[in-house]
Design brief:
The protein is built from 6 helices and 4 strands. The protein is an alpha+beta fold. The protein has helices spanning 4-23, 32-36, 49-63, 85-93, 103-113, 116-135, and strands at 28-31, 67-68, 71-73, 77-83.
Length: 136
């Protein structure tokens, strides 16, 4: 079975981390629609499942202490968002095994090229490295 929500999760993580890496150390507002695409709330004003998944990805990244933010604006934006020092060091120092290319450059290429498989592989390796460093 194809788990499209997991593929979307990896892509959201990649887009969020790259956005914050490019603007580090400035604190910025991260708009969920800028990451997940245009939201189409229902007749009651409730956000789409896609929008909510991206929203919760941002919350998850904070819970994992990779990003921080001051407040949330009605499930649409995270204000004063920035990578934590741990998140910045993690991204800046992580190199892929293939050819020594910088991780951030490969991730950027995967997103621009629309290569979800590459993005997923890179984010998986990043998360695995993070998990191993927490065990030590």
């Amino acid at each position: 079975m194809l788990d499209i929500h997991i593929t979307e999760f990896y892509n959201d993580v990649a887009r969020i981390l790259l956005l914050l890496y490019r603007t580090f150390p400035r604190q910025i507002s991260v708009y969920v629609e800028d990451i997940s695409g245009l939201d189409t709330p229902d007749e009651y004003g409730l956000h789409s499942q896609r929008h909510l998944a991206c929203f919760h990805t941002l919350n998850w990244l904070q819970a994992e202490q990779l990003i921080r933010f001051d407040d949330v604006e009605r499930q649409t934006a995270f204000n004063q968002c920035v990578l934590t020092l741990a998140g910045f060091r993690w991204l800046a120092s992580f190199d892929t095994q293939e050819g020594g290319a910088k991780f951030v450059e490969e991730l950027e290429y995967g997103i621009k090229d629309g290569n979800s498989i590459l993005v997923e592989q890179l984010i998986k390796s990043l998360l695995n490295a993070q998990a191993k460093s927490q065990v030590k």
